[in-house]
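[Discussion] Sanity-checking designs against the backbone

I'm trying to build intuition for which residues belong where. Below is a C-alpha cell string of 276 positions. I'd appreciate it if someone posts a full sequence so I can compare it with mine line by line.
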C-alpha cells in the first residue's frame, strides 16, 4: 500500500475520539461508514484527524453485499458520499449479509460457501464500485457456524470473490484466528492459502470464549495467538497496515496504549503512541 496505510491505527469511535486524536504517531484510522454525516459537518474529532493528514477509511457494515437481492441504491449512495466527505482513498465492507426478505438481522451473517453465493457478492460489489470512485476492500467475517453443503473452502471462497470482483482484501487477523479455533484448524495454514498479495490493510481485535466458542467481540484485549499470527503474516507479504478494532467496554487509555504498542511490536512497526 501507499505510505499513509503503513503502520498501526485504531478505529475512530465517538467514545474514544479524544484518545485516538491524541495519538502522535497515528497515520490512518477507520470510521463506520453509516455514521458519517453526508449533509452536515463531520464530528469535530474526526474532522481534526482528516485535517491534520490522517487517512480516514469509511468501513461499511450495512450494505449486505452477500444478500440475494441487489444492494439498496440509497445505502450505496450514502457509502459513496461518506468516502467523498472524508476524501478517502479506499472504502471497505464485509463478505456477509445482514438482511433477507426485508428482515434485518442486526448482525453480520456468514454466507454459504457456494458458487451461487460468490455470484451474488460479485454482482453487488460491482454495483457498489460503479457508484464509488475509489477502490473497495472486502473483509471475510468471523463465523460461529458454517452452512451445510459447501462447495468451496474458506480460502477458495474468498479468493474467487476477490479476483472476480477485482477488489482488495481487508484481512481481519483476529477473524482468521477465531474461525480456525472454532473449526479446529491451523490459522497459519489458512494464511498460506489466502491472496495476501491483495491485502489493503488488516483488522486486529480481541474476543471472548463462551461455552467453548470463540466470539469476535472487539471488547477484549488482542490475545497473544493473534499477535503471533500478525508476526506470521508480516513474514509472508509486504508490510500490511494494522487497524485495532474496539467496540464497547472501552478500557482506560493506558490499556489501549499498551495494546497498540503490543500490536506494533508483533509486526515490527513504529509505535503509534509515540512520535517519530
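Best answer:
Here's mine. Compare freely.
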Amino acid at each position: 500500500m501507499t505510505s499513509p496505510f503503513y503502520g498501526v491505527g485504531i478505529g475512530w469511535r465517538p467514545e474514544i475520539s479524544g484518545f485516538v486524536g491524541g495519538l502522535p504517531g497515528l497515520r490512518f484510522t477507520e470510521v463506520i461508514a453509516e455514521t458519517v454525516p453526508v449533509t452536515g459537518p463531520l464530528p469535530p474529532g474526526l474532522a481534526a484527524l482528516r485535517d491534520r493528514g490522517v487517512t480516514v477509511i469509511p468501513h461499511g457494515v450495512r450494505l449486505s453485499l452477500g444478500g440475494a437481492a441487489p444492494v439498496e441504491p440509497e445505502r450505496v449512495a450514502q457509502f459513496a458520499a461518506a468516502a467523498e466527505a472524508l476524501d478517502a482513498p479506499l472504502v471497505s465492507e464485509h463478505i456477509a449479509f445482514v438482511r433477507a426478505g426485508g428482515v434485518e438481522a442486526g448482525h453480520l451473517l456468514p454466507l454459504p460457501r457456494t458458487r451461487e453465493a460468490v455470484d451474488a457478492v460479485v454482482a453487488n460489489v460491482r454495483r457498489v464500485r460503479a457508484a464509488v470512485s475509489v477502490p473497495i476492500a472486502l473483509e471475510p467475517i468471523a463465523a460461529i457456524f458454517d452452512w451445510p453443503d459447501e462447495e468451496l473452502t474458506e480460502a477458495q471462497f474468498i479468493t474467487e470473490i476477490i479476483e472476480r470482483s477485482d477488489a482488495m482484501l481487508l484481512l481481519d487477523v483476529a477473524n482468521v484466528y477465531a474461525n480456525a479455533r472454532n473449526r479446529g484448524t491451523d490459522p497459519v495454514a489458512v494464511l498460506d492459502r489466502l491472496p495476501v498479495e491483495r491485502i489493503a490493510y488488516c483488522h486486529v481485535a480481541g474476543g471472548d470464549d463462551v461455552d467453548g466458542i470463540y466470539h469476535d467481540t472487539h471488547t477484549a484485549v488482542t490475545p497473544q495467538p493473534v499477535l503471533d499470527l500478525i508476526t506470521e503474516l508480516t513474514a509472508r507479504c509486504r508490510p500490511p497496515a494494522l487497524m485495532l478494532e474496539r467496540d464497547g467496554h472501552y478500557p482506560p487509555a493506558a490499556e489501549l496504549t499498551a495494546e497498540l504498542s503490543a500490536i506494533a511490536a508483533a509486526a515490527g512497526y513504529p509505535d503509534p503512541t509515540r512520535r517519530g
